[in-house]
Amino acid sequence: MNNAKFATALHILTLLDLAQGERLSSEWIAGSINLNPALVRKEISNLRKLGFISSKEGNGGGCTLARPSAEILLSELYQAIRVVPLLGRSNTPNPSCIVGRLINQHLDELYTEAELSLTSQLEKKTLKAFGEKFKPVS
Amino acid sequence: MNNAKFATALHILTLLDLAQGERLSSEWIAGSINLNPALVRKEISNLRKLGFISSKEGNGGGCTLARPSAEILLSELYQAIRVVPLLGRSNTPNPSCIVGRLINQHLDELYTEAELSLTSQLEKKTLKAFGEKFKPVS
DNA sequence: TTCATCTGTAATAATAATTGTTACAGTACA
DNA sequence: TGTACTGTAACAATTATTATTACAGATGAA
C-alpha cells in the first residue's frame, strides 16, 4: 500500500462517528482531511457501496454512518480498502527455472498468511474504540 | 507496498539458498526473475549492505548468502525491504480540527501494532524453510 | 600483459500509480 | 426557482516504480 486510502477512509468514518448522526458534507470533511472534495466524494462513494456510509443528495444533504460504530471493525475497513497485496506485487518470473515457476504460488501462500495475521489483529479494534481516542479525557 | 521488492529480494535469496554456496551472477538471477540485471544488482547491493548477501566482483564473481539460511528470518527481510507504512501513507490533515490534529498520531499507533503483528508472523519463517518448498518431494 | 567476465553505480528514460482539478447533471429542500 | 448538496466523468499533474544504457573498476585466466 502506497496510497493514503486507509488513512482517508478511517478519517472520514471517525468524523462521522464523532458527529453522532449529524450529516456532514463532503466539503466539510475535505476541509478536515485537507483534501480535494471530489476525492473525498470518491472515497465516500466507495464506502457507501460497501455499506459503511449512507448519504443523501441535495440541499441539506451529506452523509452519516450506516451502521453503529461499535460494530464496524477496522479489519473490515482494511479489507474493503485494500487494492494491493500486503507485501507488494509479484514479478512474472521465468517458468523454465524451478524457483521462477513456483515462487508466485509460494509467495501467495505467504501473503495470505500475513494478511490473515494482520486481519486478526485489526478485528480486535472497532471504529467506536478508535473514535474514543479523540474525546477529551475529562 | 506497491512494488515488487519483497518478491524480488526473496526470489534472490531463495536462489542463493538453493545454490548451496555456488556463486550466481546477477545476469543469471535476472534471467530467473525475468528482470533487468541492473535492477537485480541494485537489489543485491541493498541486500549486501544489510548483511544478507556477500558478493565478489570480477571474473568468476557473483554472490552467495552471507549467513546460513536457517538463521535468516523472513521478518528481517520484510523490515529490511520496507519503505512504506504497511497500511499506507497518511494525509496532512487540518490541525484546526480535533480529528485532523490527532489522527496521524493514532494512525501511527495503529500501524505500529499492525506491523508488529505481521512481523511476529514472519518471524516464524526462515529462508531455509521457504527454500524447502522448491525441493522435489522425492 | 591482455582479454573476457563480472560487479557497482550513475544517469536517464519509460511506464504506471496516485492525487488533484474542473465541470456539470441530478437531487432535495426552502 | 434558487441554493446547496451529491455523484460522476474527464482530464491534468505529480510522484513512484521499473527499465535501459553505459561505463569504471575488480578479478581471474590465457
From TrEMBL, chains A, B:
Tell me which domain of life the UniProt entry assigns to the organism this sequence originates from: Bacteria
UniProt-listed PROSITE patterns: HTH_RRF2_2 (PS51197)
Known InterPro entries for this protein? Tscrpt_reg_Rrf2, WH-like_DNA-bd_sf, WH_DNA-bd_sf
Keyword set for this entry?
DNA-binding
Q: List cellular component terms (GO).
A: cytosol
- Pfam families reported in the protein's UniProt record: Rrf2
Translocase found in the keyword field: no
Q: Name one GO molecular function term.
A: DNA binding
Q: What is this protein called?
A: DNA-binding IscR family transcriptional regulator
